[in-house]
Design goal:
Length: about 500
């Protein structure tokens, strides 16, 4: 399978797809008759490049090649994935599929970004209906992992499996919608909230800002990590879900919502909503709002990684699946050259590591070096299982030198070597680089500890042995410049 994706329609969503594929190493070909498409996609890419690479703790592959094409056949020929993101009009989409299928490979997947059409509707006039599935993403496509994968009865399981594999490889979460339905799953939920919000503005109950505050200060944060049912299960107290329904079920019969009606979108209502929205957010340009949104989304998703929950767990699994490809090993047996410093970090600088000076903040250097130490511990056999059995290393002393700056999205690598390993002591030297540029060094003294007594003790033979192999091999390297450096006493 080629790693070429064709993006048909390069607006808000097509631009996001282009960024998602490109930053995951695919070549991307765009077809969009809009003469502004290249500029618009360029701006989406600028935002994606600063936010997506640092979302996980493992670097993404080298970016693919982006090209713009004057004709649809030129864009789709030879592509393994074709993503349609033209405006939400059934006739237009059907025409696009006919043109795509006249030129694309029979084995390619054709995904549609449609928010509402069922796959069987899209497949209506297609030459090969089995090739077309709904792959409905969420904005910003380059950061949000959800993609609703909706097949119809015309799609064989192999096409669904192929689509799932590609989307998972892009770090996405393909939610297989087993039974096609208008507006899939998520947009049905969103539309219900949207309709109710329009009523609240229409009836003069709340402004656009008050409604947004009702979401973002409360249940919006809650939904980001547990969704609806798990949240309500907890809200039922010790008696759980059944008790929750017994208590709040009857409210559903009360006139709490107007869900089935839609307010008429008169000029006056549209003007009211637009001017409230201008008052709320008009101080920022759309691109600035996108950057604020991306900073926040990255922070939220990254906060779920240590708890291995929801979108954080998904990102961790994606990192784990790619770590070998990015040269990160788990065990001494996988180390190709034991005499060379070991690659212990290969990642991009995330947005939440950037400070008011516009570069990676000092605490995050220690964060990265601590993660490098953790990986080195793992490589010599101090694994999570060993730690759970009662042994570990504690850091007794650290010295970091800050040599150069790193910006958001910069790819950083840390290489680690053993300076000394004697009895319970392990002295490590880490060097952090961006390409050829040295960014920082760190020297750590660690002690092996018995976690039940909290006292330092020598490591068991299997760990001591692995450590000694590195120590002996690294002793042949020149002593790095800066070893043993201290800030020094004031004169
Ligand atoms: N905007 C959103 O929040 C979301 C939209 N979607 C879906 O994504 C699709 C696209 O929506 P947006 O990106 O928002 O629209 P958009 O209006 O931003 O972009 C559509 C693009 O398609 C191009 N286009 C029009 N006719 C074309 C043709 N024949 N061939 C190639 N390109 C053509 C236009 O020039 C434009 O750049 C729709 O189906 C929509 O329902 C899905 C998820 C979220
Ligand atoms: C408004 N919308 C129906 C186009 C929204 C979506 O389809 C998904 C999203 O990103 O909210």
């Amino acid at each position: 399978m080629s790693r070429i994706a064709a993006v048909i329609g390069g607006g808000v969503i097509g631009g996001g797809w282009a960024a998602r594929f490109l930053l995951n190493g695919w070549d991307v070909r765009v077809f969009d008759p809009d003469p502004e498409a290249e500029r618009k996609i360029g701006e989406v890419l600028d935002n994606a490049r600063r936010s997506l690479p640092g979302l996980g703790n493992v670097a993404l592959p080298e970016e693919g090649r982006l090209s713009f094409h004057a004709t649809m056949p030129e864009a789709v020929a030879g592509a393994a994935w074709i993503q349609e993101s033209v405006p939400e009009r059934l006739e237009l989409k059907r025409k696009v599929f006919q043109a795509v299928q006249a030129a694309c490979d029979v084995g390619a997947v054709i995904g549609s970004s449609t928010s509402g059409f069922k796959p069987s509707e899209l497949q209506g006039c297609a030459t090969r209906p089995e090739q077309i599935v709904v792959t409905h993403p969420f904005n910003p496509v380059y950061l949000l992992p959800l993609v609703e994968l909706v097949p119809s009865e015309a799609n064989p399981p192999e096409v669904v499996a192929q689509a799932k594999a590609v989307l998972t490889g892009l770090g996405m979460y393909p939610l297989h919608v087993r039974k096609e339905i208008d507006a899939h799953i998520a947009d049905r939920l969103l539309e219900a909230v949207w309709r109710e919000a329009l009523w609240l503005v229409n009836d003069g109950i709340a402004t656009t800002e008050e409604i947004d505050n009702a979401i973002r200060y409360g249940f919006g944060i809650r939904w980001a990590q547990m969704g609806l049912f798990e949240t309500y299960r907890v809200a039922g107290g010790e008696a759980g879900m059944a008790h929750f329904i017994a208590q709040f079920g009857p409210c559903l019969q009360w006139p709490w919502t107007k869900l089935m009606d839609v307010p008429e979108l008169t000029d006056a209502l549209v003007e009211q909503i637009a001017s409230q929205s201008d008052a709320q957010s008009g101080a920022h340009s759309i691109r600035a709002l996108e950057r604020i949104r991306d900073n926040n989304l990255v922070g939220i998703i990254r906060s779920l990684q240590p708890t291995n929950w929801g979108a954080g767990a998904l990102q961790n699994a994606h990192d784990q699946a790619r770590s070998g490809d990015m040269g990160l090993v788990q065990d001494i047996s996988e180390v190709a050259d034991i005499a060379a410093p070991v690659l212990t970090i290969n990642r991009a600088v995330p947005l939440d590591w950037i400070d008011y000076n516009g570069h990676m903040t000092e605490a995050r250097y220690l964060d990265a070096f601590a993660a490098a130490t953790d990986r080195f511990m793992q490589i010599i056999g101090c694994t999570p299982e060993y730690i759970a059995s009662g042994g570990s290393f504690f850091t007794a002393e650290t010295h970091i030198r800050h040599i150069d700056e790193a910006r958001a999205g910069a790819r950083i690598q840390v290489r680690t070597r053993v300076l000394m390993a004697e009895g319970k002591k392990m002295q490590l030297w880490h060097e952090m680089v961006e390409g050829e540029r040295m960014l920082a060094t760190a020297e750590h003294m660690l002690l092996h500890v018995d976690l039940s007594t909290r006292r330092s003790v020598p490591p068991p033979p299997q760990i001591a042995g692995a450590l000694q192999r590195f120590a002996a091999a690294h002793a042949g390297l020149d002593l790095p410049e800066g070893v043993g450096r201290a800030v020094g006493a004031p004169r």
